[in-house]
From TrEMBL:
<feature type="domain" description="Peptidase M16 N-terminal">
    <location>
        <begin position="494"/>
        <end position="615"/>
    </location>
</feature>
<dbReference type="InterPro" id="IPR050361">
    <property type="entry name" value="MPP/UQCRC_Complex"/>
</dbReference>
<dbReference type="GO" id="GO:0046872">
    <property type="term" value="F:metal ion binding"/>
</dbReference>
<feature type="domain" description="Peptidase M16 C-terminal">
    <location>
        <begin position="209"/>
        <end position="383"/>
    </location>
</feature>
<feature type="signal peptide">
    <location>
        <begin position="1"/>
        <end position="20"/>
    </location>
</feature>
<keyword id="KW-0732">Signal</keyword>
<feature type="domain" description="Peptidase M16 N-terminal">
    <location>
        <begin position="52"/>
        <end position="175"/>
    </location>
</feature>
<dbReference type="InterPro" id="IPR007863">
    <property type="entry name" value="Peptidase_M16_C"/>
</dbReference>
<dbReference type="InterPro" id="IPR011249">
    <property type="entry name" value="Metalloenz_LuxS/M16"/>
</dbReference>
<protein>
    <submittedName>
        <fullName>Peptidase, M16 family protein</fullName>
    </submittedName>
</protein>
<dbReference type="InterPro" id="IPR011765">
    <property type="entry name" value="Pept_M16_N"/>
</dbReference>
<dbReference type="Pfam" id="PF00675">
    <property type="entry name" value="Peptidase_M16"/>
</dbReference>
<feature type="domain" description="Peptidase M16 C-terminal">
    <location>
        <begin position="649"/>
        <end position="831"/>
    </location>
</feature>
<dbReference type="Pfam" id="PF05193">
    <property type="entry name" value="Peptidase_M16_C"/>
</dbReference>
Length: 921
């Protein structure tokens, strides 16, 4: 479950209570056609006070079930912090009529995007379920709303207290992880409801009693303090019947008092410096600003985007692009119910002076407040923001989906479509509006933080049957668009799945390349070269390219994974022709400008430094050479970034050679999903890609030699002094794709899901739910052309390192021996994977990715339809055999990252095998 800090940036759009800037006739209004989506809804309220919002969208047979409670960390008090978030965790530990892990019925039903989050102002719980599972989902949600207290025991409280504390440790052990707590405590006065972090303090969590938890539920979890949103394949009549059936008998709670606003605007400057184990210095400036629901909040959001939103923002151009003092910049409006905050920051590059960076930030901010943004800047940002929003609401559920939008409007503003007011304010915002808001809020009262590296309501008498969870009797049929195929004049294979629900076109050009195509002295070149494609063409500079794409509401994305590279385009249909033209220009005419290359080289080296500061990323850098040896194509960081030595030596000739060798029509496939016909598509592409032809050389081949497997375990320990956690990773090599029998990849996936590939897997339930030593432990069975790595990984509290390793070994041994996968586990995993298929391809990018992945593996679109049957055909004996064949204790390579001074003796006492100690880097 996520805390508010994990989603803070996505929360803050605000509305209107002033009239400034609402006159569209003002001379400096940025006149631009802004795209939007009209989210139709209906709402009703049950007799017990539960508000229900319904949105019908029948494009996929799924329903988003989203429950928001009007309670967050602001309802706590000093000495009792962390309760809102801790209670969120307890809501997943069973209710009186289903006293088991909450995720179980949902996994079997194929639920997706299931989570719970807490922020300062609210707590929410959400999931997407197949239409046939709506009764189950509403039964489960209503059972924990109306029938929870009898299931909350001291053992459960202690267990989840431990999980939350490990979540806190894990978050604070990440680079800059303590920043949010420090900012909360120093920007709001003591006792202000925003002056403590959402996750709370260790001391307060330790002091939480069972009586405290029960009282929290009684105070805040009544139906009259909640909003239920149902969005998707459901109509109003059905929603009314089901809401009444499952929630109507729940007794209302008592009234809840709310502080509507307390901005706590500051005067003067407060400065603070802190040291943390971070790779780079960071500057952060914070102002307390207008609360949620104000026009000033919208204007300040626009100002923040002008200042540091994307490549064409002023701080990016100045600090990252021109003077190259920072690796990244950020600015956003963190808007909440009682108060907002403008947060501006920059991460300094090595040897850069934070004082100089702060001076530049102050200079650019002062100039922006004095002169205002240009009309062109407002045009660009308004359209770009609107385009991003249109894309985000394609889905009915999840973060930013339509149910999320409706719920936030209903909870924060008593208006499910409050977003329309937000958009109306932004659309007519003027230069003067933005300037005036900046002057009102950002000329005094800043907090400067520098972070330096350190070595009357009734209820009905009768409700739903609570004796059993409603069964999901059947599953909706997967419905996919017809797939068309064509070949361009240059030989490029084109695959199109036409989807017209939103006016967008998405395409992905996949190349058989990837990290494995650039090895040894060129390790990291694939990802670097694909990144350089976006840095300008022979006709458009990097900034010109970014500006034009922003104006079009388009995006070009590139990158590599282990075996493949891709160049992708997301375009608005109305701008398809120009967007496709730019895409072709990026592909065929990269400039590889030396200055851009040096800038990207600096950022890549900075990224490598940050990878080394992150335990998990560092382990993914170190483990591959240990598994594959020195001369294998996969013997390089799985992050794809290469090493300092290789990146420093990349040349323009290397980039040209890479694109010439690997980015060719006969080594590529184009997959398109969107609002376009095949005729429109091929006409445009044959024109724009006419000059892209195959060279007169054979297609390149990757060297994927078979690696001999070790005969005994090996242990590598990386020192991370004073780390509050240890990261445990154990890896071995599985079969290559060419050696897999038909359907073996599905069997391996099922095997992995049971042992460690899901929340309810054995390893996670042991280390997180039973022991409370880790926030999350998992395993992963990678898919690769060559021998694929299998990993088990677990970040654990330092004083439980030895015990956690022992538990992992115990689980693996039992899985391959005395306690193999059982029928109940397999049935649950199979049900989950089959049930989630119908809703998996709701969004264009999801369908595009699945189609591209199928074709890359020598399959076609029929595989997506056949997949549920193939999964259901796997036997228990086959899954058990896959575990025995793959998981060999003697072949494990262990990488442990932690404070050696605290864990050395304990690791050695385990007698895992020969131990090699490595420095932090």
């Amino acid at each position: 479950m996520l805390s508010a800090l994990a989603v803070a940036v996505s929360l803050a759009l605000t509305g209107c209570n002033t009239t400034a800037g609402t006159n569209a006739a003002k001379a400096n209004v940025a006149a631009v056609a802004i795209p939007s989506v009209d989210i139709q809804y209906e709402t009703f309220t049950l007799d017990n006070g539960l508000t229900v919002v319904v949105h019908t969208d029948k494009k996929a047979p799924i329903v988003a079930v989203n429950v928001w409670y009007k309670v967050g960390s602001k309802h706590e008090r000093l000495g009792k912090t962390g309760f809102a978030h801790l209670f969120e965790h307890l809501m997943f530990n069973g209710s009186e009529n289903y006293n088991d892990e909450y995720f179980g019925p949902f996994e079997r039903a194929g639920a997706t995007e299931q989570n719970g989050t807490t922020n300062n102002d609210r707590t929410n719980y959400f999931q997407n379920v197949p239409t046939s599972a709506v009764d189950m989902a509403l039964w489960m949600e209503s059972d924990r709303m109306g029938h929870l207290l009898g299931a909350i025991t001291q053992d459960k409280l202690d267990e989840q207290r431990g999980v939350v504390q490990n979540e806190k440790r894990q978050g604070e052990s990440q680079p800059y992880g303590r920043m949010w707590t420090v900012m909360s405590e120093n920007t709001f006065p003591k006792g202000h409801p925003y002056s403590w972090s959402v996750i709370g303090s260790m001391e307060d969590l330790n002091a939480a009693s069972l009586d405290d938890v029960h009282q929290w539920f009684k105070d805040y979890y009544g139906p009259n303090n909640a909003v239920l949103v149902l969005a998707g394949d459901i109509d109003l009549a059905t929603a009314k019947q089901k809401a009444q059936q499952y929630f109507g008998d729940i007794k209302p709670g008592k009234p809840v008092d709310q502080i509507d606003a307390w901005v706590a605007k500051r005067t003067g400057t407060k400065r603070m410096s802190m040291q943390d184990r971070v790779p780079n210095p960071r500057l952060v400036k914070v102002w307390n600003t207008a609360e949620l629901g104000t026009a000033d909040g919208e204007y300040l959001s626009l100002l923040a985007d002008v200042l540091a939103g994307g490549k064409n923002s002023r701080l990016y151009q100045r600090l990252v692009y021109q003077e190259q003092k920072a690796s990244s910049v950020f600015a956003f409006n963190y808007s909440r119910v009682m108060a907002g905050q403008i947060i501006i920051g920059a991460d300094a590059l090595k040897d850069a002076d934070l004082a100089e960076i702060e001076a530049i930030v102050n200079e650019e901010l002062a100039r922006l407040i004095e002169e205002g943004p240009t009309v062109a800047e407002l045009n660009r940002i308004k359209f770009s923001n609107a385009a991003s929003w249109v894309k985000s609401v394609e889905g009915v559920g999840g973060f930013g989906g339509k149910s999320d939008v409706l719920a936030s409007g209903a909870v924060y503003h008593n208006d499910p479509v409050f977003y329309k007011k937000q958009q109306a304010i932004q659309n007519v915002a003027t230069v003067e509006d933005v300037k005036a808001a900046g002057k009102r809020w950002l000329t005094d009262g800043d907090f400067v933080l520098t972070i330096e590296p350190f070595a009357q309501l009734t209820n009905q008498d009768v409700g739903a049957d609570r004796s059993k969870v409603p069964a999901v009797e059947s599953l909706p049929k997967l419905v996919l668009p017809t797939v068309e195929k064509a070949t361009l004049a240059n030989g490029l294979e084109v695959i199109l799945a036409r989807r017209t629900d939103t006016p967008t076109v998405n395409l992905q050009l996949n190349f058989d390349a990837g990290f494995a195509s650039t090895v040894g002295a060129k390790a990291g070149l694939s990802d670097f070269a694909m990144g350089m494609l976006k840095e300008g063409t022979t006709s458009l500079s990097s900034l010109e390219l970014a500006a034009e794409l922003e104006n079009l509401g388009a995006g070009i994305y590139s990158g590599s994974n282990l075996d493949g590279s891709s160049l992708s385009l997301s375009a608005m249909k109305i701008n398809w022709q120009r967007s496709a033209q730019i895409f072709a220009d990026v592909l065929m005419n990269p400039a590889f400008n030396q200055a851009d290359m040096e800038r990207l080289r600096t950022l890549t080296l900075d990224g490598i430094n940050k990878e080394k500061a992150s335990p998990m990323s560092n382990a993914l850098r170190i483990l591959p050479p240990l598994l594959y040896g020195d001369n294998h194509a996969y013997s390089q960081p799985l992050t794809g970034s290469g090493s300092e030595e290789t990146v420093k030596n990349f040349s323009r000739e290397d980039l040209a050679d890479y694109t010439r060798t690997w980015l060719r029509p006969d080594n590529a496939r184009l997959v398109v999903v969107g609002d376009i016909t095949m005729a429109e598509l091929t006409t445009t592409l044959n024109k724009e890609l006419a000059a892209w032809q195959n060279p007169n050389t054979a297609k390149p081949q990757k060297q994927l030699a078979k690696v001999a497997l070790p005969s005994k375990p090996r242990v590598f320990v990386i020192d991370k002094p004073e780390s509050p956690q240890s990261l445990i990773v154990a890896g071995l090599l599985g079969p290559a794709r060419k050696d897999l029998a038909e359907g073996q990849d599905i069997k391996l996936d099922l095997m992995n899901t049971i042992i460690g590939g899901s929340f309810t897997s054995r390893i996670n339930m042991n280390l997180r739910e039973d022991k409370g030593w880790s926030y999350g432990a998992r395993s992963s069975m990678s898919k690769a052309e060559g021998q694929a790595p299998f990993f088990v990984y677990a970040p654990v509290q330092t004083d439980k390192t030895k015990e956690s390793i022992s538990e992992i070994i115990k689980e693996l041994k039992a899985y391959t021996g005395t306690n193999p996968a059982n029928a109940q586990e397999l049935e649950k995993v199979v049900s989950n994977k089959v049930a989630k298929v119908p809703g998996s391809y709701e969004k264009k990018w999801s369908l595009l990715s699945a189609l591209a992945n199928a074709y890359d593996k020598g399959r076609d679109e029929k595989y997506l339809e056949q997949y549920p049957t193939k999964v259901q055909q796997v036997s228990l004996a086959q899954v058990q055999q896959q575990a025995k064949d793959l998981i060999k204790e003697e072949q494990l390579t262990w990488v442990i990252v932690g404070d050696v001074a605290k864990i050395k003796a304990e690791i050695e006492s385990l007698n895992l095998g020969e131990i090699t100690y490595l420095p932090a880097n």
